[in-house]
Amino acid sequence: MGGWYNGRLEGRSASNSVWSSKNGKDWKLIKENASWAPRCAAAILIFKNKMWILGGTTAYYYGGKESLLNDVWYSDDGKNWKLEIEHAAWSKRTHAQAVVFDGKIWIMGGGRWSPETVPENDVWCSEDGVNWTRVTEHAPWAPRMWFSLVVYRGHMWVLGGWSRTNGNFGDVWCSKDGKNWKLIWIEVRLDRLLDYLFLAGFEFLRALGFYDALYAGQQSTEFFGTTIPLIPGGLNSLTSLGFLWEKIARWEVETCGSSMTLDVSPCGAEIVKDLVGYYARGGDPALIDQVWNCAIVLGAAIFGALWLLTELNWYIDWLIGWSIAAFLLYGIDKTQAKRGGWRVPENLLHLVALIGGFVGGWLGMLVFRHKTQKPVFKVVLAIATVIGIVLFYFFVLRQ
Questions:
Q1: How far is Cα 68 from Cα 4, in angstroms, rounded to an integer?
Q2: Based on the number of CB atoms within 10 Å of its own CB, is 391 exposed (0-12), middle (13-18) or buried (19 or more)?
Q3: Which of 42, 57, 125, 266 could form a disulfide with 104 if both were Cys (CB 3.0 to 4.6 A apart)?
Q4: 155 close to 143: Cβ distance less than 8 angstroms
Q5: Host H or E run for residue 27
Q6: Closest CA to 149 of 97, 186, 96
């Protein structure tokens, strides 16, 4: 219902028509001109088996204060509308969001778009649509428009949004009462760190001849005089390696009795997005290669960064880099096992442990309680530990 026609072009206008559909495809016009003024960016919800429309603006891009609304209307059928209150206690606004929670209507945020943008972060509730209570004048989340507001597992959730001062928001907040809000997640800017790790790891791979060999489509390369087979499908995904770090991992966090999957962002590609869809698509061998690629580049990047930034023995850097990679892989695989999603190949966990990540493997097994019922993992980790101790003696202690 309502909305805006034709953007900023000639003939633009707001609407007060009401449409309905049973399937989202076939639509029926219920009322061409409802009793309420034509508007867009209003808050719409279902409360007490009635449709409600709250506030909005009659002019969108071009209206000032005079175009804003704070009236409240409801209808049983979409045709016959009743004005519940012409001016609610909350200020006139557009792009506010409203939900039904705890037997009340809640409205929050929004504001004025023009001539200057003035977003809000107040929170109001009402049990009848007429009498409104201001729960808080300023919620801890920044004033915003164009955000999402949902009810999930006994909480109200505010997600994202925009303000002219801050641009797009990437935060998530939740509250049980509208007054006390908890910050669940905020976008982490790791770009510079991950860029550096990537470049260090990339230079290390290139110095060893891995990148040139993979880029050329070779099946193996020389490593300290030994022929090393390259991963099938290779880091030919490395033709786009510069994008690898944008979505470095997806983490599962527990909060408010529910789990949310969050992106710990930063500077690269669609690889992890593709991985997330792996299980849903029934498994795609090409995506398994991507898991291998991510793990190898991650371990090599951490090692390369430590090698350049510290004065530790190179083998200690090697063990730290691959142990971090192993620990993260165990954590990611445990998370995916709980979700029933795509899995980290077991051979990859074994390989990362054997080439130096055994400490991270043991920690991952203990911290995440993962793979504890599979004896082969303990055997491989034990073998990797023995190998690691021997190499530590030759590369560190003897020197």
A1: 14
A2: middle
A3: 125
A4: no
A5: strand 27-31
A6: 97
Number of Cβ within a 10 Å radius of residue 345: 16
Beta bridge partner(s), residue 99: 106
Alpha-carbon 63 to chain mean position: 34
Helix-then-strand count for the chain, H and E: 8, 24
Structural domain boundaries of the chain?
4-185, 192-397
Q: Which two tokens stand for residue 126?
A: 């009402």
pLDDT (tens digit, 9 = 90+) per residue, 13-38? 899 999 999 999 999 999 999 999 99
For residue 111, the SS3 value is strand
- The pair phi, psi for residue 291, each rounded to 5°, is -60, -45
d(CA 119, CA 143): 5
Looking at domain 4-185, its CATH superfamily turns out to be Kelch-type beta propeller (2.120.10.80)
For the record, the structure tokens of 159 come out as 């997600």
> Mind listing the pLDDT tens digit for each residue in 223-236?
434 444 444 333 33
Which residues make beta-bridge pairs with 111? Answer: 94, 119
* Separation of alpha carbons 364 and 358, rounded Å: 10
Grouping H, G, I as helix, E, B as strand and the rest as coil, residue 308 is helix
Do the beta carbons of residue 260 and residue 253 sit within 8 Å?
Answer: yes
Q: Give the Cα separation of 291 and 342 in Å (integer).
A: 10
Please name the helix (run of DSSP H) or strand (run of DSSP E) that holds residue 133, with its range, or none: strand 132-136
Contacts of 86 (CB under 8 A, 6+ apart): 71
C-alpha 231, offset from chain centre: 30
